[in-house]
Amino acid sequence: MNNVLSDNWVLSGTNIDDFNDEIKNLDERTFIKECQMKDLNFVDVSEDRTLSLLSPLANFEDPNNNFYTDQAEMEYDFFKDKYDDDVIHQMIENAFALTDDVLFNKTQDITPISVHAMQSIKTRVKISGYGFDNYKHVRNLCIVPNFKKEEKINVILRKDMDITLPSGDHPSKVFAIMSDQYSYIPQNIMTTIYNRLSREGKEDGLGEVVCTNWKIANDVTSLYLEFPDSSKKINETYEKVEKLNLDLSVGILLEASDIGYSSFKINGYVKNNDTNSIIRLGKEYKQVHRGEIALSEAVNVIRNEIFPEFSYVPERLAELLSIDIAKDKDEKTKVKTISNLYNKLIKYMDLNSIMGKKRMKSLTDTLIAGINPTENYTAYDIATQMMNVCDLVEEKETVLDSFSRNAILALKFDYKEFLSE
């Protein structure tokens, strides 16, 4: 979706200058409104396009309670002058909006609330659970009375700067409602880190740094930086010493959210260039939205904690090459042993939680059906298979992201202990 106010809006590319330009554009469209919780007026939006101003005095224990102070039918043409169909549909779907206008039923001057904002809103009123969003109108009635507090908050808005309203303002949408402790983290910190690594990479022995991919969305921004000189050195070393034919790239993933959807994070990763699957390494730099980011601290974590991890994957793979699985066993025993190993790894890697029990049952059956009892297997064979198990099916990006965090466990599993059981 190209409209910046859409929940589905996303841009992607590989050029770091384009990334920097788009981050700057997004920053210029982002505004923070400081106010009290009690100052917000919430609107319930129904599927039949009825707009209901929610009463701050709503009380489920009072059978005579009126949950709404005013209602009006949505004037669709009025909204089309401000928002495209996608944004209007999302407002109806999320069933939630804000208004600043006391003459609500006269002007319908309301601001949609993004689905991305719901996490922060529920945090403000101490409500949790994704299932709660299945009953949006009940959810809204529960939220509003809890906002009647004299407590400072920060409302994070995006504005469509391509449209100017008669008032001189621009159409906007709420993407987060944060506490007064919220600290805005400019996402251009990511290109600042890239520039610093570009200058200092050779001194650290990492060589050139390149941007291989970036994605900017309204919830989270991701920037992938890789080190081709270091990748080449690692591959050549292990091909020579361990006779291991590797095609790996090493890099760091920077993730940020200027709406507080996620902390600012930096992870090291190793990518299998044959499959493009990513294995996130263990060390992580993390900064929540409180206080300022200490740039030197972030760079030091990259240099002193993340960089040394790059050699772990090839080193561990080399170790696993020497561990035979059910060697010299009869075919029945070999199939049973490897089947048990698959099931142990699935549990150890928590794949049922990531991919779902039904999907994982099918994948397990596929893995077991693929066992050839006439071949010899090493722990290297099993580990690489489990690290690339998502290649057997098409998965959503969120699943692939979660899997990349746990793929490293296929290497950390104690194969020797398993074989001694």
Distance between the termini: 54 Å
Structural class computed from helices and strand pairing: alpha+beta
Overall mean confidence score, pLDDT: 85
Strand order of the largest sheet: 1-10-11-12-13-14
**Beta fraction:** 15-25%
Helical region count? 17
Uncertain spans, ≥5 residues at pLDDT below 50? Answer: none
State the helical fraction: 25-40%
Per DSSP E runs of 2 or more residues, the count of β-strands stands at 16
What kind of sheet is the major sheet? 6 strands, antiparallel
Coarse shape: globular
What is the radius of gyration computed over CA atoms, rounded to a whole number of angstroms?
26 Å
- Tell me which oligomeric state these chains represent: single chain
Task: Please describe what this structure looks like.
By secondary structure, the chain is an alpha+beta fold. Helices cover 38% and strands 23% of the residues. The chain is built from 17 helices and 16 strands. The strands form 4 sheets. It has a 6-stranded antiparallel β-sheet with strand order 1-10-11-12-13-14. A 5-stranded antiparallel β-sheet has the order 5-4-3-6-7, with helices on both faces. The termini are far apart.
Short account of what is shown:
The protein is α+β, with helices and mostly antiparallel strands and 421 residues long.
For the structure shown, list the relevant keywords.
alpha+beta; 5-stranded antiparallel β-sheet; 6-stranded antiparallel β-sheet; 421 residues
